[in-house]
Design brief:
homotetramer; about 90 residues; mainly alpha; Methane Monooxygenase Hydroxylase, Chain G, domain 1; Metal_Tscrpt_repr_sf (chains A, B, C, D); DNA binding (chains A, B, C, D); metal ion binding (chains A, B, C, D); Metal_Tscrpt_repr (chains A, B, C, D); Metal/formaldehyde-sensitive transcriptional repressor (chains A, B, C, D)
Chain lengths: ~90, ~90, ~90, ~90
């Protein structure tokens, strides 16, 4: 069973929040609000998508590849922990 | 009248396509499809958001600040053209 | 006279710091330090490059296109201020 | 032996190219060249840093965590292959 299934609820919540942000831009355009607002809303969506990707990649590593908190192979566990750490700093 | 109003149709189309991509991830999660698919779908959304931001920023420059194709101030027009060019290469 | 000339000192300082960071990776590789370090150093350079680009773009807007703090055209000044704001949030 | 050691030569070459690009910006500033050039050079460095990160992360996965081309665990190998693929599309 994939982590996206096990953690479906949490990830779905993030995805729905992003959908809500996209729908908010549709409304802002329909209501002809200032493009300063639209620009900031797009920037916020990109941030949310990066957050979603970071979470799904971390879960993917832990669930499908190596879970640093449980793997008996010390080197491999450290390698996975280092990867998760750099994904967080690089995708933020 | 803001460029987001004048070009509403075109921008709204991009935004709706992004909404469609987000909804596709909701379905992929609901249908418990492989997270390899979900990972690629998220990457595609980030690309689409970057594309949307690039277009809205370019329109914002042309409509609200300086349109390189019509501005009589040569230096200012070249400055705006250089900015549009680097936005395209940096946000892709 | 271009902003990169007028503000050369400040920008050059940033660029030299980035060169220092790149040279630090060369040393880390030569000294065969852990790749966890190298990964974080690369992430730090990408952050510094984004910071450099944000500063040069803002200066480019103020110097070559429209300075929101001095331009007599209110709409154009607000448009430039909105653009500078979204560049800061999007490129960070 | 870490992949950064084993593949030192190749990674060092990439890092030195990036250093060369940074030094080129120092020269462009010293020679007071147009900021259009400087903007594009910064964008090129950010692209090169993303390329470097992608290569070091892929090597990190293959060398320290799971090499999809040799690992006997089919699920884990596929998980690693999917991760490498999304890193390439997300960091480009």
């Amino acid at each position: 069973m994939s982590h996206t299934i096990e953690k479906k609820g949490k990830i779905l919540q993030r995805v729905r929040r992003i959908r809500g942000q996209v729908e908010a831009i549709e409304r802002a355009l329909a209501e002809e609000r200032s493009c300063g607002d639209v620009l900031q809303q797009i920037a916020a969506i990109r941030g949310a998508v990066n957050g979603l990707m970071t979470e799904v990649i971390e879960d993917h590593i832990r669930f499908h590849i190596v879970d640093p908190s449980t793997d008996s192979d010390v080197d491999r566990a450290r390698g996975a922990a280092e990867l998760i750490e750099v994904i967080h700093s690089y995708l933020k």
